[in-house]
Specification:
A seven-stranded mixed β-sheet has the order 2-8-7-6-5-3-4, with helices on both faces. Strands 9-10-13-12 form a four-stranded antiparallel β-sheet. The longest helix has 23 residues. It is built from 17 helices and 13 strands. The radius of gyration is 23 Å and the shape is globular. By secondary structure, the protein is of the alpha/beta class.
Length: about 425
C-alpha cells in the first residue's frame, strides 16, 4: 500500500513539474512504478512521427498569448508601491468595476489574496473561519490562515455540488456565538467555482442564503473566486451578480484567464486600503508590475469568449467518455458545468491511467498514425482530473478523447486475456 502511494505520488509530482514542448517537443518521462510497465516516453521523433502533447493537468499551464506578449512589451509602468504604475491602476479599476466592488488590489497570487482577506477580516488572533473541508484555502494553501494569520479554521463537509449544508453551517455558528469556550466565528469562506467538486458553480440563491446567515450573526463572507469568471460564464450572469453577496472576493488571472501571473482582491475601499498594508507585510509589493497587469487585462477582456469555448470543449470530452461506455472510466455529465472534468477510474489506479495516457507506444502509432501524449492529473484514489484552458482546441479535445478510447480498449483486451491492464510502451529506463 505504501509503495503504491509512493509511486502514485511520484507520478503526480512528475505530471505537475514535467517539462518539454507542448507541441512535438522533448518527451516527458513516465513513472514505471506507477505505470505498471508503461515505462518512459520516447520522443515522437524516435517513433518517426512528431509528438503532440495535450496538457490537461490544469488551466495554470497556459503560455501567454501573442496579444499578451505584445501588451506586456508595450506596457506603461511605474512604481506600484507608490501607486504610480498606470497599467496596474487601470487593471484594478477595471476589475473592481466588473466585480461590482468599490476597489481592488493587484497581488502576485490568489493564495496571497485569500490570506490577505482572512487577515483583514479576522484581526483578532484565534478568530474562527468557517469553510468547506475540501476548499482550496483549507487544503492547498499550506495552512496560511493558521500559521500566518493565527486564525482557527473549522472545516465543514462539502456537498457534492461544492456547497455547504446551511443547517450545519448555522449550527456551527450558533454553538460558538456568544460562547466563552469556542473561538469567535468571524468569517465564512466560499470557493467559486469549487475545484474539488469538479468546477461546480455555486448557485446564486445559495450565495444569497449564506450572506443572510452571515449578516444574522455578524459574520463576513469572503469568496475564493479564483475561477469566478468561469462561474459567471456558466451561469450567464455578470460577475458582479455573484460578488454582490460577498464582503470580499479574489480573482485569479493565471488560471482560466490564461495570464502568466497575478490576481486581485476586491472589496470596500477601506478594506482594500488595509489589504495594501497586509500585502506589504507579506512581501507582495511588485514595483513595476504593469508588465504582468497588461497580460492580466487581456485575459480579463477576452474571458467570455475564451471560457465559453473551454466549457464547450470540456463538455464534449465528458460526452465522449459517456459514449465510450467503457468499464474503465466514467463521468457524471450533470457535474460538468465549467472547464473541469472529473473522471472516475475503475480496474486500475488513476496514476496508472495517467501514465498510459502520457506514454506513446509503437502499437498506438501503427493503429492511429499519431503520437499523442495526454497529460491528466491523478486527483484522488479513484479520480483523474482534466482541465480545459485557452491552449487546448476542439481538435486537441478530440485527440485526447481518441487517446483515452485507445488506452481503454487496450486495457480491456489485456484484462480479458488475463494480463496486465496497460498497452505496451516504447520501452524505458
Amino acid at each position: 500500500m505504501l509503495a503504491a502511494r509512493g509511486a502514485g505520488g511520484a507520478l503526480r509530482r512528475a505530471l505537475l513539474h514535467g517539462t518539454g514542448s507542448r507541441r512535438g517537443g522533448a518527451a516527458m518521462a513516465g513513472d514505471s512504478g506507477a505505470g505498471g510497465g508503461a515505462g518512459s516516453l520516447r520522443g515522437g521523433a524516435a517513433l518517426g512521427c512528431p509528438q503532440h502533447v495535450v496538457d490537461l493537468r490544469s488551466d495554470t499551464v497556459t503560455q501567454p498569448s501573442a496579444a499578451m506578449r505584445s501588451a506586456m512589451a508595450r506596457a506603461a509602468v511605474g512604481d506600484d508601491d507608490y501607486g504610480e504604475d498606470p497599467t496596474v491602476n487601470e487593471l484594478q479599476h477595471l476589475a473592481a468595476r466588473i466585480l461590482g466592488m468599490e476597489d481592488a488590489l493587484f497581488v502576485p497570487t490568489a493564495t496571497m489574496a485569500n490570506l490577505i482577506a482572512v487577515m483583514c477580516h479576522c484581526q483578532r488572533r484565534g478568530a474562527q473561519l468557517l469553510l468547506g473541508a475540501q476548499a482550496h484555502l483549507h487544503v492547498y494553501e499550506h495552512g496560511g490562515a493558521a500559521q500566518v494569520a493565527g486564525v482557527h479554521s473549522q472545516a465543514l463537509p462539502d456537498l457534492p455540488d461544492g456547497t455547504l449544508d446551511l443547517g450545519q453551517l448555522e449550527l456551527a455558528i450558533r454553538e460558538a456565538h456568544g460562547s466563552r469556550y469556542h473561538p469567535r466565528p468571524e468569517l465564512i469562506c466560499l470557493e467559486n467555482t469549487h475545484s474539488s467538486a469538479g468546477g461546480r458553480a455555486l448557485p446564486l440563491t445559495y450565495l444569497q442564503q449564506v450572506r443572510l446567515l452571515a449578516e444574522r450573526y455578524g459574520l463576513r463572507v469572503h469568496m475564493d473566486g479564483a475561477r469566478l469568471m468561469n462561474a459567471a460564464v456558466a451561469q450567464d450572469v455578470e460577475p458582479a451578480r455573484i460578488a454582490q453577496h460577498c464582503d470580499s472576493v479574489s480573482l485569479c488571472f493565471s488560471k482560466g484567464l490564461g495570464a502568466p501571473a497575478g490576481a486581485v482582491l476586491a472589496g470596500r475601499r477601506a478594506f482594500v486600503a488595509e489589504a495594501w498594508r497586509v500585502r506589504k507585510l507579506l512581501g507582495g509589493g511588485m514595483r513595476q508590475a504593469g508588465v504582468l497587469a497588461a497580460a492580466a487585462r487581456i485575459g480579463l477582456e477576452q474571458a467570455e469568449v475564451t471560457l465559453r469555448r473551454d466549457h464547450d470543449n470540456a463538455r464534449r470530452f465528458a460526452q465522449g467518455i459517456e459514449e465510450l461506455n467503457s468499464p474503465l472510466c466514467s463521468v457524471s455529465l450533470v457535474a460538468v458545468e465549467t472547464n473541469i472534468v472529473m473522471v472516475e477510474v475503475k480496474g486500475l489506479s488513476p496514476a496508472e491511467l495517467c501514465a498510459y495516457l502520457q506514454a506513446v507506444s509503437e502499437e498506438e502509432l501503427a493503429e492511429t498514425g499519431r503520437a499523442v501524449s495526454v497529460l491528466l492529473f491523478p486527483w484522488s484514489e479513484r479520480t483523474v482530473r482534466a482541465v480545459w484552458h485557452r491552449d487546448i482546441s476542439a481538435h486537441d479535445t478530440e485527440l485526447a478523447l481518441n487517446k483515452l478510447g485507445f488506452v481503454a480498449r487496450k486495457c480491456q483486451e489485456k484484462l480479458a486475456q488475463g494480463r496486465g491492464p496497460g498497452p505496451r510502451s516504447t520501452g524505458g529506463h
